[in-house]
Amino acid sequence: MDVSEIIRDICWHDSVVRKVVDLPEAGKHRLLIELDYPVDWENDVIETHTIQFLDVYNYEIHEGPCMGSPTIMDANELDERWSDAGVHTIRIDTTWGYRIVRCKSLSLEKGKASLSVALREPNSDDHPDGR
Known about the structure:
- A four-stranded antiparallel beta sheet has the order 1-2-3-8, with helices on one face. A four-stranded antiparallel beta sheet has the order 4-7-6-5, covered by helices on one side.
- It is globular.
- The two termini are 14 Å apart.
- It has one domain.
- Helix content is 9%, strand content 47%.
- The protein is mainly β.
């Protein structure tokens, strides 16, 4: 599954950002965003999931102070000059503002943001929500 498909398949809306872990190891820069992730809207089931961004080139936060944790409203891939180098620019709109991540790939993993999630290689055949 390519990055554009993964971005479209992730249920961004109403995911609540709980923690961000930046692992800047040279050549393997990873960014983990731990979320309260809606897995079943009809039954109001929320589980902890982590979005893992791989080969991160840049992470920007453009948010102001608010109460509580930021809730994601939407995410889109932007068409920028980085795409020629295989780097995708993803804008994540939140209730506080927006975030920009530039990376080569991403995956959605079940569970909390941790080193074990970061060290696990994502399976590109897996569906983003574990189906």
